[in-house]
Amino acid sequence: xxxxxxxxxxxxxxxxPEPDGVTDGLMDKVVNLCKRRGFIFxxxxxxxxxxxxxxxxxxxxxxxRNVKNAWWRSMVQLRDDxxxxxxxxxxxxxxxxxxxxxxxxxxxxxxCRQCHSRWRADKLTxxxxxxxxxxxxEARPFNLMFKTHAGPIxxxxxxxYLRPETAQGMFVNFANVLQxxxxxxxxxxxxxxxxxxxxxxxxxxxxxxxxxxxxxxEYFVPPDEGQKWHEYWINERYRWYLELGMPPDKxxxxxxxADELSHYSSATSDLEYLFPWGxxxxxxxxxxxxxxxxxxxxxxxxxLDYFDPTTGERYYPHVIExxxxxxxxxxxxxxxxxxxxxxxxxxxxxLHLHHRLAPYQVAVLPLSKKEQxxxxxxxxxxxxxxxxxxxxDVTQSIGRRYRRHDEIGTPWCVTVDFDSxxxxxxxxxxxxxxxxxxxxVDVLVAELRSRAGED
Length: 455
Ligand code: GAP
Known about the structure:
Blueprint: H1 26-37, E1 40-42, E2 54-56, H2 58-77, E3 82-84, E4 90-92, H3 93-99, H4 101-104, E5 106-111, E6 118-120, E7 140-143, E8 146-149, E9 159-162, H5 167-172, H6 174-181, E10 187-196, E11 211-221, H7 226-243, E12 251-255, E13 267-275, E14 278-289, H8 291-300, E15 306-308, E16 313-315, E17 318-325, H9 326-337, E18 338-343, E19 346-351, E20 362-366, H10 371-384, E21 390-392, H11 398-407, E22 412-416, H12 418-423, E23 425-430, E24 436-440, H13 444-451
Parallel strand pairs: 3-10, 20-21, 20-22
Antiparallel strand pairs: 1-2, 4-9, 5-6, 5-7, 8-9, 10-11, 11-17, 12-13, 13-14, 14-17, 15-16, 18-19, 22-23, 23-24
Helix pairs in contact: 2-9, 3-8
């Protein structure tokens, strides 16, 4: 993979050769679409952009929320053994001292002696990607955590960190959750939220950024059940991506070699996606053993073991952790969904997004701006809004509006035409097949809910 140089004027994402079978220029096309249609903007763009930091626009925020909702639904709502929390992002040194991140959460940093750009040694393939030199300094460990001071006095005691993973929030709240929910192993604590890493080489659009969102779940199990649950969660998580439309031939499972395991892990398997630059991580599923609970119990003096009333034994539960990235997952779904085809001899761009992920599920389109049509179209819109995220679009020809919604992945367009005023029926147009059917307004919500599998 081509690493992105830490120098001004560098491209926003690396232009890497694409493996066979991947659409030419796919990355550029998706990046352009994201900006043009309001999915993702460069942060602080009017000031020249804040490198490798992104803002999510009106469509992006819907899709990001949909990814999180789909994860929460599968990991929390549809289960009786997982509860959620929302822990603080800002945390004291003691947490990161105990977790091992202060010592171990590092990447090997080298500097090019020629142009002074800095790189992750383990991602370099030889010469400096910026100037071609092969003369680098010795690698030194570079801690990825963002450090700050909490309060007005900037001394040692005020040092705080932006969390580099959401996981520690679950470990430090283990006893609180156990007491307040009466859960017992096997059970899980889930969280979605922002994490921050001072990545040496952020790259590939939102694939690796310094500010990003994670969706993580710590599943606490009896010590002798670790391997069983590790396999269970690998399968569950794989299934989640496929159910949301990820093509099976673009996904694979890759167990980590002993040399790449994180400091807390006894075994990790990555779910990988075939990105335009090759296979890369979407999500890691780790067996963290009892590492974190023990470390926090030792460091804090709190009781973080579990008393099993049925056996009378105390033990530290082992932890299986499926850890995914919201922003990275959204990008993978966009890449997988992007397509160019022809409709009636006309080229179109279409995102074949699963309806749960699409920014809008339904677009309501009055055929013209005539007042009577708009009045009825707004009635239809208000009927649909409690059930679906809807767009209302009245500008330009109906054909242009269909194309616009194909391009942002809206699965269903509902057109209100002049006949609708007489027969109280509307046309549903389906994105992937472009098939159109006429449906009475009275059953429109039921029809669309049934298409969405929600009746
Ligand atoms: N608690 C374990 C943990 O944080 P990780 O593999 O470092 O494990 C989990 O991170 C997931 O978070 C990754 O699989 C990826 O999807 C996402 N992620 C990690 N670093 C990221 C970054 N710099 N930018 C975007 N997403 C990132």
